Amino acid sequence: MKNILLFISAIALASCNCSAPANDSAKDTAAVIQADKDFNDYCIKNGQKAAFLHYADSSVISFGENELPKIGIAAFKESIAKNHDTISKLTWEPYRGEASGDIGYTFGWWKYTTKTKAGTDTIYQGNYNTVWKKQKDGSWKYVVDGGVDTPARK
């Protein structure tokens, strides 16, 4: 599962329009990193479900443990309606990113704070990789997003 996300990301980046001038690539890179930060801020303010729907491209591909991928916004909306609560808190921070033409990626660290069924506070953390697609209006929306658990960062 973890390797599938990396493989899809590599294919998406390899198929990007890499003939964009260097200054456009720098602007696109800054814009995709900012989109990732804005996505996080939107999640903090409006919750996970609203944020993931707001920033999803219409062709989004969503992965779940022990499930087949959900392809397209309709399947994603159906899936996310069942899986996100309002108690847990997800935050993330991009560490690096790159974009060229109409495709880009970000990589960073996430933290998920929740409570167990017994009421104990629990924190999970890890890293993530998001593939972004530039929209016709110049904004960025994600097409693939995923992450893995990691030990605590020092």
How would you describe the overall organization of this protein?
The protein has a single domain (2-14, 21-149), classed as Nuclear Transport Factor 2, Chain: A. A hairpin with a 5-residue loop joins strand 4 and strand 5. The model is unreliable at 1-20 (pLDDT under 50). The two termini are 26 Å apart. Helix 2 packs antiparallel against helix 3. The protein has 154 residues and is an alpha+beta fold. The chain contains four helices and six strands; from the N terminus they run αααββαββββ. It has a six-stranded mixed beta sheet, with helices on both faces. It has helices at 2-14, 22-46, 48-54, 73-83, and strands at residues 56-62, 70-71, 89-100, 103-115, 121-134, 140-149.
